Amino acid sequence: MRGLGVVGCRRLGLAGSLAIGAGGWAAGRLPVHDPWGWWTDRGPTVTTAGAALAYAGLTALVVAWWAYGRTGASVRHTLVTLAWWVAPLLLTPPLYSADVYSYVAQGAMVLEGHDVYSQGPSVLDPAGFAGDAAASVGLHWTDTPAPYGPFFLLLARGAVALTGGTLVPAVLALRLVAVGALLLIVWAVRRLAREYGADESGALWLAALNPLLLIHVVGGVHNDGLMAGLALAGAVCALRGRWVLGAVLIGLAMMVKSPAGLALLFVGVVVGRGSAGTPARRIVTGVFGPGLVAATTVLAVSVLSGTGFGWLHTQSVAAGIHTSLSLSSDLGAVLGTLAHTVAGADPEAVKSAVRLLGLAAAAALVARFGWRSATGRLDPLLGLGLALTALVLLSPMVQPWYALWGVPFVAARACRGPAGRGLAVLCAALVYETHPSGSTPGIGFAVMGVVAVTGWLLLRREAAADRATSGGAGVPGPRRAGTVRDGVATGAAPV
């Protein structure tokens, strides 16, 4: 794969992205009714062919991405490649998920004055404002209150108001928000990589060029990209001494999705170290300063938005859904069935207990990463990325795009290290979990396993080659790219 070169990888990835987009028009998450007639069902034969085309394109995109990470491409070439790979996904129907229909419906609910934190999209008139979006919401979510904070719902309301609630333009308006989030991730990751003297192009490769992000943030229009982008921008500000603005941005990220609040713990470490005064004063500033600013931001936006504080009570609405990617839910289900068979125990009670233990383990890991960061044994940015990843892996409800919470923080700090390489393999595998329509066929998990094993073997082979090249000194850590010739950074560390 190293022989493809920058241009070859770019063209292969473009072909893959074009195939995903073309297949998505037939096999994506099509709405129940599209008044424009753009995104309509074309029958089972075309749908099957579209899905096959999308899967083939996805494989081409993953191969191109993996190979691109070994080219040592310059930042400029990486940004051009990103634009090429994003463009075919801009006008497609929603891919791999129906969540964006929920966003549109919830935006319409806010606009019409419904309590979005006590009611679901089913309260909207099917023949009325944003009715097409409400009818297309996934079955789990039609009567479910919104788990998102007021800042994101204001954006959704704006998209609906701007487009009159018409389905296609409303979805495309929210896709523009997703593309804006991608641009924010690019901006923040580049600056964070510079702060650490890390490989800027490699950081972009893992954080932004990542196929998992392209198909789920751009294609699927998930708001996880916006949460990550705002939290990353907050980290940039904190590292540059503008921690008040950074805390405001993290507060906004929390009002997209609440897990962004973990950033306050690690940003507090940065703030405390950079503050003037006695050690006690620095500790107080780091512990309380960012949190108070973020809390004030949350209070102000919650009041001014008119949606109130109901979102604080709806953060667990998704926890009751069993997703097969959740290790704690899967283990709980197995142990619950076994306990019921052997001792007649309530399987749901056992499953709930195991899920709680998973969350407790996640909290313990977050605390450990936080303590190591505070005591100088772990970089705070890397600690934040690891903490978010631990939270995802041990949560009772996991979706593949949740992996994107921690990836950009690890990418900016240690894209060439063990954590970055491991997350690269994880992302390459997770893209196969979901069908373009949003379903999760069993074959997807089998392919995930094959890709994960293949990626691990490739990393082992590359590590052995690195050791041989360096005379047994081990795998090199992150370092600056060298000079740039013809778009290639000579001296860049291999991924």
List its salient traits.
globular; single chain; 19 helices; 495 residues; two-stranded antiparallel sheet
Radius of gyration: 23 Å
Q: Percent range for helical residues?
A: 55-70%
Q: What string, H for helix and E for strand, traces the elements in order? A: HHHHHHHHHHHHHHHHHHHEE
Count of DSSP E strands? 2
Strand order of the largest sheet: 1-2
Report the principal-axis shape: globular
Low-confidence stretches: 472-495
Averaging pLDDT over every residue, what do you get?
Answer: 90
SS-derived structural category? mainly alpha
Helix count, DSSP H or I runs of 4 or more residues: 19
The span between the termini is 13 Å
Largest sheet: 2 strands, antiparallel
* Strand content bin: under 5%
Written description of the protein model:
The chain is mostly helical and 495 residues long. It has 19 helices and two strands. A two-stranded antiparallel sheet has the order 1-2. A hairpin with a 2-residue loop joins strand 1 and strand 2. Helix 1 runs parallel beside helix 3. The longest helix is centred in the middle third of the chain and has 30 residues. The protein is globular and about 65 Å long. The C terminus is likely disordered.
